[in-house]
Design goal:
It catalyses: meso-2,6-diaminopimelate + H(+) = L-lysine + CO2. Helix content is 28%, strand content 24%. With 446 residues, the chain is an alpha/beta fold. It folds into 2 domains: 173 residues, Beta Barrel (Lyase, Ornithine Decarboxylase, Chain A, domain 1), CATH 2.40.37.10; 231 residues, TIM Barrel. Strand 2 and strand 3 form a beta hairpin. The longest helix is centred in the middle third of the chain and has 19 residues.
Length: 446
């Protein structure tokens, strides 16, 4: 960084320290990996989603290598709900990943990108009869059964299809992951999984039901977890459960360890794959199990961002920071409105970094008071026409977008170094109603 750029505010410096894939170049401005966001913004406009394939690939390789270094054979099932775009699935499939799905639609998406059925696990507390039938017919690797009722329903479906269903029982270990209350899944009060106290009883039933092949157990305690402490608590409970099942004469060959590995949105530490691998080696390796994990956010979150443009700078007097209204909105990225989520925001142009820093409110244009991206955010002074990047938006970003306020869906672009390609064109206004119908019986005259 040279003297052409104003000294960055300590908050910005702190953010950059936990985001090594983001750099500010005096000439080219904001770089995402080796991709110039200035060039991307000028070429594709805004709002636009950017997925950096280099970053995604390197994160998968790091995760995979962490287990190899510990001599652990761990199946990595990418949690498609984080971002199920075909281009992302294709890249991860070529790296060797399987898929963790939560719907029949995700199952068909995974198969379309040539992820083998044997590498697919089906999670979710409310699978439909049609979805379960498709999973059995396709002979996917495992179905993570979330209730006794689902287990019996699945047995009946498998009998009708004439095939066996390989299952793991998803167990709720009643472990507090110390994460946001809307993304915790491992407490007894949560809707997910079979109560720990009922696990052995239901596992015995699985052995007695026709067309059911019990493999073992699945545990998932929540999302955005940075510490290994809650994983240790959950894994130790599962060790006790596995030993109890084996003592009673029931085979347990598989433990799906779930996902939920946290990332650094602000300056908090992200989950460390090497620490997770070491924990699994210490606690689980002695049981001689086939192990699996279901990462989503950790892989794709930091690999994606949202580009937006400043529409107007609205000054409301000396006692209120200026409102910076951008062309992205809560219909594009709903996480701040839904979870009060914090996302890093930086200007893209190098010229912006010549300006002094100030506190700014960053808001979208949607007619909702909750359409807020940041409050009192310290940034270089932003002006109309400036492009900004909203970081760590690869997970639960584009996949949760809507067309609220008749706003077309943003374009999606994938980059590799200086190369870029549209992977989903920007929706047109006309696209919004092309599948809408007015009933023929509606009166012509009122």
């Amino acid at each position: 960084m040279t003297s052409l750029i104003q000294p960055l505010h300590p908050n910005v410096q702190s953010f950059l320290k936990t985001h090594p894939d983001i750099t500010i170049d005096p000439k080219d401005g904001l770089l995402f990996g080796t991709t110039s966001l200035k060039i991307i913004a000028e070429q594709y406009g805004s709002p636009s989603w950017i997925i950096n394939s280099d970053i995604l690939k390197s994160r998968y390789e790091r995760l995979n290598q962490a287990f190899k270094n510990k001599q652990l054979d761990v199946s990595i099932h990418y949690a498609m709900k984080a971002n199920g775009h075909l281009a992302i699935l294709d890249l991860l499939a070529k790296e060797g990943a399987g898929a963790d799905i939560v719907s029949g639609g995700e199952l068909k998406r995974a198969l379309k990108t040539n992820i083998p059925a044997s590498k697919i696990c089906f999670s979710g507390v409310g699978k439909t009869e049609d979805e379960l039938r498709l999973a059995v017919e396709t002979e996917i690797g495992q179905i993570n059964v979330e209730s006794r009722e689902e287990l019996h329903q699945l047995s009946k479906i498998a009998q009708k299809v004439g095939k066996n269903a390989a299952i793991c029982l998803r167990i709720n270990p009643d472990v507090d992951a110390k994460t946001h209350h809307k993304i915790t899944t491992g407490l007894a009060e949560n809707k997910f999984g079979i109560a720990y106290q009922q696990a052995i009883t239901v596992y015995k039933e699985a052995y007695q039901l026709p067309n059911i092949t019990p493999l073992g157990f699945d545990v998932h305690i929540g999302s955005q977890i940075s510490s290994t402490t809650p994983y240790r608590q959950a894994f130790l409970r599962m060790v006790d459960l596995i030993k109890a099942a084996r003592t009673q004469g029931y085979d347990v060959t598989t433990l799906d360890c779930g996902g939920g590995f946290g990332i650094s949105y602000q300056n908090e530490p992200e989950a460390n794959p090497e620490d997770i691998a070491a924990l699994m080696k210490e606690v689980l390796a002695p049981l001689d199990l086939k192990l699996g994990i279901e990462p989503g956010r950790w892989l794709i979150g930091p690999s994606g961002l949202l580009i937006s443009k400043v529409l107007i700078r609205k000054d409301n007097g000396p006692n209120t920071p200026p409102f910076i209204i951008i062309d992205a909105a809560m219909n594009d990225l709903i996480r701040p409105a839904m979870y009060e989520a914090w996302h890093g925001i930086l200007p893209i142009s190098p010229e912006a970094y010549l300006r002094p820093s100030e506190a700014l409110h960053i808001d979208g244009p949607v007619c909702e008071s909750g359409d807020v991206f940041a409050r009192d955010r310290i940034l270089p002074s932003l002006q109309p026409g400036d492009y900004i990047a909203i970081f760590d938006a690869g997970a639960y970003g584009s996949v949760m977008s809507s067309t609220y306020n008749a706003r077309p869906l943003a374009a999606q672009i994938m980059t590799k170094g200086s190369q870029s390609a549209i992977i989903q064109p920007r929706q047109t206004i006309e696209d919004l109603w092309k599948n809408e119908l007015v009933p023929s019986w509606y009166p012509n005259n009122i």
